[in-house]
Amino acid sequence: MKDILTEQEIQQLRAETRGTEKTIHFNNAGSSLPPNAVVDTVIDYLYEEAQNGGYETEYTYREELENTYSLISRLINARKDEIAIVENASTGWWLAFNGIDFKPDDEIITCEMEYVTNLIGLLHAQKTLGVKFKVIPNDEHGNFQLKAFEEAIGPKTKLIAVTHIPSTAGGMIPVVEIGKIARKHNILYLLDACQSVGHVPLDVEEIGCDMLAVTGRKYLRAPRGTGFLYVRKEVQDKLKLFFMDGFTTQWVTETDFKPRDDARRFEVYEKNRALTLGLGKAVEYALNLGVERTWQRVQHLAGLLREKLKEVNGVTVHDFGNQLCGIVTFSVDGTDAATVKNKLAERHINVSVGKAVSTLIYMNKNHLSNIVRASVHYYNTEEEIAILCEVLKGTIGEAV
């Protein structure tokens, strides 16, 4: 493993990120500041489309567009033919989830950290298909209960669907351990890695998941409107297809057709090529840095932020569990999260409001209606953390 990022490297990374010049950005779990190279890639491609034509420009960049699949496969240790490029993690998750041939009384096991879109999918399957789902709660220390999880598996268990890193909490789910249990019982495993890719090192072979849904805009630092879906080769034929066109098929006659023999069967032909190139550039940027190295940096900054926030009177940090990530959640006594967010925005500090609906089961369990979410990335600095805490100290009194 390479050493942690040096101060010189961090300053170079900030110089390669225009947004750091005027903004302290702690909303990376919402949408990171993209590197200049990603922005320039998208803009340059659009200019070429305007000058030369869309199809013609796509042909010119056909190798670079194709290489995006190769880069993604390297990032998560998958095969190239196991990657489909989609608009966002929700699209990928729904394609995978709704592709499963559920029967009445089939069971799904999930976690209390499941994202709202996924929870809606589970509820929809319950209402329309008669599927049941079980929620494995975290223990009193904030850790996923592996023993209770395995005990919940029964003959009707059809799917394990969990979110690796939740939207409104700093904890993490032990996805590798869950994968070992899923393989032991030969159960399909769908992982929401929306907050994970570019944040923590991910290896789908080590995790053992069958399907993995990812967005580009968060820790991967890709443009909004990008994402990808990983589907293990052995599982692809088991999933139903919903959106089909000439791109998704190997051949078509007047009486029949055959789907492609790779994960691109889950795509459609028409998509934004400029954004696809931007996604590829973001993945390349992450690979060049090394996610193991940037993960060390994120852990350091998040740990420091939690320590400093706990020193601010009136602030309560809500993150707990053995595995913590770059998302730091807190509340201010007597002040709603939206007010805190707006006060910080006046000083050009970006944070987000984590609403109860985003991770409804977890938030309800912990009696939280909303929280402030400050999510760090490797290009943030200790000085920015100090500024955030000082601004909080100065605004808590006037906000209350």
UniProtKB/TrEMBL annotation:
Name of this chain's protein: Aminotransferase class V-fold PLP-dependent enzyme
Under InterPro entries, the record lists: Aminotrans_V_dom, Aminotrans_V_PyrdxlP_BS, PyrdxlP-dep_Trfase, PyrdxlP-dep_Trfase_major, PyrdxlP-dep_Trfase_small
Q: Look up the record and name the cofactor or cofactors this protein needs.
A: pyridoxal 5'-phosphate
Protein family per UniProt: Belongs to the class-V pyridoxal-phosphate-dependent aminotransferase family.
Give all residue intervals belonging to the Aminotransferase class V domain.
25-387
Tell me the GO molecular function terms: transaminase activity
Keywords on this record?
Answer: Aminotransferase, Pyridoxal phosphate, Transferase
